[in-house]
Design goal:
Length: 171
């Protein structure tokens, strides 16, 4: 299976026509919707100050993580920033086939990659803060960080596809 075929169809059986084609873009959209759910819940908890649903395990203390000084950046809750970034990524993904600039030379994919790369690096920092500094884990935060890493992998795959198409067109 070529890289081009991988971009068009993920999970199809060779020789068989799939009933439902799952593109990498659609996978990205579904992942971002999942991320919106998590960041939306974290934002709701931060905004309303209601107790967070959290595991009773001793390693998890969602309240300690959400209530720490590290849960805000410049006075703005990180959960709100995460929600806003997820909205931005969903907007790019939805507009990608409709806006000429985002379609040109894979600009939309590259823009999304830059955002997801920053989010992944910031997630590494947040995991460090939870594990080393606070010595407390937030399962919701970890779930969001795991989703970001999965989205990073899917977006990287899309970048590779774009770059391989560019390389083929150059020859």
């Amino acid at each position: 299976m070529s890289v081009k075929q991988a971009e068009q169809t993920v999970g199809s059986v060779e020789g068989a026509q799939p009933r439902f084609q799952l593109s990498l873009r659609l996978i990205s959209i579904l992942l971002v919707i999942f991320g919106l759910g998590i960041s939306g819940y974290l934002s709701y908890v931060k905004l309303t100050d209601v107790p967070m649903v959290c595991s009773a395990n001793g390693a998890f203390d969602c309240g300690a993580v959400q209530g720490s000084v590290y849960s805000e950046l410049g006075g703005i809750p990180i959960a709100w920033m995460g929600f806003a970034v997820n909205i931005l990524m969903l907007t790019i993904l939805l507009l990608e086939p409709r806006v000429e600039f985002l379609r040109q030379s894979g600009n939309g994919v590259m823009l999304l990659f830059g955002i997801v790369l920053f989010a992944a690096l910031y997630s590494v920092y947040l995991i460090y803060i939870q594990g080393v500094v606070l010595q407390a884990w937030c399962m919701w935060c970890l779930m969001h960080e795991a989703y970001i890493f999965i989205l990073f992998g899917v977006t990287l795959w899309r970048v590779i596809v774009i770059l391989s198409k560019t390389e083929v067109e150059a020859h």
